[in-house]
Amino acid sequence: MAEIVLRQSPLDHLSLDARAVAEPGPAGVVAGERRFVAKVNLRGDPADEAFVKVAKGALKVFLPTTPNTVDGKRDRYALWLGPDEWLVIGAPGTEGRLVADLRKALDGIVAAVTDVTEGRTVIRLSGVHARETLAKGCGLDLHPRAFGRGRCAQTRLGKANVILHQLDDAPTFDVYVERSFADYLWRWIEDGASEYGFAIVAEPIMAALKARRATR
Amino acid sequence: MHLIACPWCGPRDEAEFSYGGEAHILRPEQPDALDDAAFANYLFMRGNPKGVHAERWVHTVGCRRWFNALRSTVTHEITAIYPMGTPRPDRAP
Fold it and tell me: Does A25 touch chain B (CB under 8 A)?
């Protein structure tokens, strides 16, 4: 008999939805997990014009060549990981399509497309003290002068290797953390943020908060 | 804590890097033509200078790219960072 295995995010056991609030109020840090965001590792030579053109056509975003920068918006981003390596982000559930499209488009071009969706989960942090919370355990200079919107970095947060991506000036950060470190890092963030007031929100509420802030 | 300037990512904490040993060790073109002493010399023997040392580093936590550095073993000062496969910048070719 076939066994049905439900897809689980690495933070499911923390029951974040049950602790989520509808209105974060004066919390200095608002956080939530973005489950099952599609992540595809793309490698190729940025000096190869055919590769760049085809990848741009398939992804609808540029592959940034400036180290530690991001191109894209909403739910489609390309994060610089190395001089010939990018992490392509898509809406949850789109990884199969993304990989198939990229492989088809890049047929005959020297490139590698790898689905790494399940390897990491994404913790989104927002709020006036989100930056201070991250700075407690990160060797990077996160001051807006040095690290702003549209920047990404692979670095260490606490004792976990992460990819940081700053989405806006709220500031809002997406923290891509490896599966086995997700529980540790969530608890670390919650502990670090508690002095500023910490609220957990569910994913749709987080999107709504962002939209409301934008219209203010 | 050192700040090491990754050629791609810029200055980062030393803790993000891993050390790769002495740079510019070339594998012999015909290893089977060497006698044991010569091969052992290639395999095990390393300079141990007091002063400038050419060595390999990798930005493990970040972009995972290798590069060479000139570091003083006395002061830990890093005086040059240069791509792998290029000659030592402090020695005329």
Answer: no
